[in-house]
């Protein structure tokens, strides 16, 4: 599908000049919705004709692509889940012959078969355009040096960010994740303007710098574009102050494309704009998704994010249930493109503790408001022997400057605040700085040691 991009050719704009936006970033909502409708009608027909799973699912649900007459008709179509992709492993979801698939990515598959996704040449071009658009919104400009610490490989983060930064006209440093000492060395020697990483990995880098006696505020870095895991406003503040940077959010998932499904504008820092010329978002009730159209919630209402691709060729995706919990908000910096609120968590990552729902991001938010405590924490769930009740232990490092003795009050405060704001009782253990595992990419926060079944 053609890109109507009016971005300046690389090298022709200086780092400080006003950005040239894609035409679709500035169109009106009406024009955008008209574009969505025609692309959506094409996509559902294309998926129905070319992917047996969609034909089967549409037929079973008694809907046909010709039923899609207006945008709200999308609610009549069945959802697609990660399980569908797993069942069609490896290439059953592909809508083009293999010789037209230019790239394959896959999820790590920690819980069963990996999910495999494919891209045609046009898909790769669209992806690069949208990542470039996201980076530009976050303050990155042509000519800047960009340190890419997202992992390269089957994970979409590394190569997706790489292609986007190149398309924007940046100089890319493809360091990938890990080898933190080397990362620090290259940040000092190459003097990048921007860094791309998960928020917890940037924290690892900042922490390691401080340990080496390097002031993390003294580097050349001015911008960070962070995503691939949930993070909070408190974490943004922590990273911005620790590293003297502007940190913006970037969202995406491999099943829908990879990074760059949505990106945040640095001047407003008010959530990611979903690039609605390529994806149609919906919010549904995650616990009652069976009610068809009526389960689609209104803008502003919290629920599960669902995406339909509008231009994808190799892997068209219809009403994909992301399991990410958020809400849709009106566009601001890019008025036609709605924003998504911060992801509170994934519906499958929700801890249910004695009837109370809890997400790691809630603990992050509360802990980072207590000055003695660091952002390094883990949650451990156990069922003590002979007890029927589950128990939550929050293990969190105190800050370097705080003594073990003076952290007892902080532990009590955290326990009380969790009780007040989340409603659960828990055990808080404040541990020594550096004693918890550091992130290399997506950080695992929850250790569920409860007996299975
Ligand atoms: O994490 C793609 C990506 C790479 C996004 C680099 C941003 C930057 P997956 O490995 O398929 O793809 O994981 C997708 O990660 O459903 C969310 O649960 C979570 N996630 C991604 N971005 C954010 C974000 C990449 N900004 C899953 N905030 C998604 C919160 C995020 N969660």
Structural class: alpha/beta
- Number of alpha- plus pi-helical segments: 11
Which percent range fits the helix content?
25-40%
**What small molecules are bound in this structure?**
5'-O-[hydroxy(phenylacetyl)phosphoryl]adenosine
Rounded to an integer in angstroms, the radius of gyration calculated over CA atoms is 22 Å
Distance between the termini: 48 Å
What best-fitting shape do the alpha-carbon axes yield? globular
Return residue spans where pLDDT drops below 50 for at least 5 consecutive residues: 1-12
Spatial order of strands in the largest sheet: 4-3-5-6-7-8-9-14-13
As a percent range, the share of strand residues is 15-25%
Number of strands: 21
Average of per-residue pLDDT values: 94
Describe the secondary structure blueprint for this structure:
Layout: H1 23-26, H2 29-50, H3 52-61, H4 82-87, E1 103-106, E2 116-119, H5 121-137, E3 145-148, H6 156-168, E4 171-173, H7 180-190, E5 194-197, H8 199-211, E6 223-227, H9 233-243, E7 246-253, E8 258-264, E9 272-274, E10 279-284, E11 303-309, E12 320-326, E13 328-329, E14 339-340, E15 345-346, E16 351-353, E17 356-358, H10 360-367, E18 373-382, E19 391-398, H11 407-421, E20 427-431, E21 446-448
The structure holds 5'-O-[hydroxy(phenylacetyl)phosphoryl]adenosine.
């Amino acid at each position: 599908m053609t890109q109507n991009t009016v971005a300046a050719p690389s090298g022709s704009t200086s780092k400080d000049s006003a950005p040239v936006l894609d035409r679709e970033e500035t169109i009106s909502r009406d024009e955008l919705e008209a574009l969505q409708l025609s692309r959506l009608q094409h996509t559902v027909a294309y998926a129905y004709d070319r992917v047996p799973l969609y034909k089967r699912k549409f037929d079973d649900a008694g809907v046909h692509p010709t039923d899609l007459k207006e945008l709200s008709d999308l609610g009549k179509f069945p959802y697609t889940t990660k399980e569908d992709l797993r069942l069609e492993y490896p290439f059953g979801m592909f809508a083009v012959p293999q010789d037209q698939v230019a790239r394959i990515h896959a999820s790590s598959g920690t819980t069963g078969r990996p999910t495999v996704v494919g891209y045609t040449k046009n898909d790769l071009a669209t992806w690069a355009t949208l990542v470039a658009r996201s980076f530009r919104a976050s303050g990155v400009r042509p000519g800047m040096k960009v340190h890419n610490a997202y992992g390269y490989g089957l994970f979409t983060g590394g190569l997706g960010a790489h292609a986007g930064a190149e398309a924007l006209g940046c100089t890319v440093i493809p360091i990938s994740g890990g080898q933190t000492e080397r990362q620090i060395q290259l940040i000092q020697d190459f003097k990048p303007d921007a860094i791309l990483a998960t928020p917890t990995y940037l924290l690892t880098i900042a922490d390691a710098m401080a340990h080496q006696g390097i002031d993390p505020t003294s580097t050349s870095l001015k911008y960070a574009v962070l995503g691939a895991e949930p993070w909070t406003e408190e974490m943004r503040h922590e990273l911005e102050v620790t590293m003297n940077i502007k940190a913006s959010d970037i969202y995406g998932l491999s099943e829908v494309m990879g990074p760059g499904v949505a990106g945040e504008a640095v001047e407003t820092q008010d959530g990611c704009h979903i690039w609605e010329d390529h994806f149609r978002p919906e919010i549904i009730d995650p616990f009652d998704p069976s009610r068809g159209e009526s389960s689609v919630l209104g803008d502003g209402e919290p629920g599960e994010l669902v995406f339909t691709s509008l231009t994808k060729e190799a892997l068209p995706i219809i009403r994909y249930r992301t399991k990410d919990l958020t809400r849709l908000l009106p566009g601001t910096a890019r008025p036609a493109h709605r924003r998504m609120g911060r992801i509170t968590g994934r519906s499958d990552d929700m801890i249910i503790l004695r009837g109370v729902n809890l997400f790691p991001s809630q603990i992050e938010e509360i802990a980072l408001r207590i000055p003695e405590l660091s952002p390094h924490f883990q949650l451990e769930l156990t069922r003590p022997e002979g007890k029927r009740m589950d128990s939550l232990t929050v293990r969190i490092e105190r800050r370097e400057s705080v003594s073990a003795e003076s952290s007892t009050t902080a532990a009590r405060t955290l326990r009380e605040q969790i009780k007040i704001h989340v409603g659960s009782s828990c055990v808080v253990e404040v541990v020594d700085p550096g004693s918890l595992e550091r992130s290399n990419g997506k950080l695992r926060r929850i250790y569920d040691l409860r007996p299975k079944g």
